[in-house]
């Protein structure tokens, strides 16, 4: 083989090695560009994940606060219901007591009238005995004393009965006043219960099948929850919806971040492989 042929082969080998080195360098550059792109995506998804996790934390706190308020509203409603039951029972018992006191007062007044009539009879009979004593000395003195004592006892009975009747009137007045106070309290508790549990009917035009109100079927109306309990429950439901949406968003972002991290890892491995190949080919070229 002559020198010209050897030189020609050497030049061909050099061009082939250079072409391989250029190809490897181009692959390294492309791999580096891909790594940079995925790194930017990972950085963006990481920032988004931090932001959405902050949203999730805030939504969780809001949901917990709304749940606390909802439970408190339920406790208040339960207490108001118990108070409403108690005042209703007290009002019923007070009304019964007032009627009984009135009945006793009426019976006492009737008894006094009878006692007064009895006293008059005893007094007249005593006067008659005294007249008989004046005209007939044989009338015993014990009868005179007995009639005098009977008159005194009857008058005492009238006085005691009048005192008892006065006590009945005082008790009746007190019972009536108590009934008025309990009635007022019952009305206020009932209004409070209505404020907590109130639901009004408003007209509806879309997708309304109807409602049953006091046993009647009402078409075209839907409940408008304006009571405290319903509003607090609505606030909790909305807070729960926002939390669930925030949780869904976080899961989606985390999946996107995981995918980007996996793609970045693959691209980095490919870049390192091309870099190693380029380094080996360069070293081989210089050694030749």
Strand order of the biggest β-sheet: 1-4
The Cα radius of gyration reads 53 Å
The span between the termini is 20 Å
Rough shape? rod-shaped
- Main sheet summary: 2 strands, antiparallel
Give the assembly state of these chains. single chain
Low confidence ranges: 1-12, 200-223
Count of β-strands: 4
Number of helical regions: 3
Helix share bin: over 70%
Q: SSE order in H/E notation?
A: HHEEEEH
Kindly report the average pLDDT value.
80
What percent strand?
5-15%
What structural class results from the helix and strand content?
mainly alpha
How would you describe this structure to a colleague?
By secondary structure, the protein is mainly alpha-helical. The chain contains three helices and four strands; from the N terminus they run ααββββα. The protein has helices at residues 3-135, 141-197, 228-287; strands at 199-203, 211-213, 216-218, 221-225. The strands form two sheets. It has a two-stranded antiparallel sheet. A two-stranded antiparallel ribbon has the order 2-3. A hairpin with a 2-residue loop joins strand 2 (211-213) and strand 3 (216-218). Helix 1 (3-135) packs antiparallel against helix 2 (141-197) and helix 1 runs antiparallel to helix 3 (228-287). The longest helix has 133 residues, at 3-135. The protein is rod-shaped, with a radius of gyration of 53 Å. The two termini are 20 Å apart. Mean pLDDT is 80; it is low at 1-12 and 200-223.
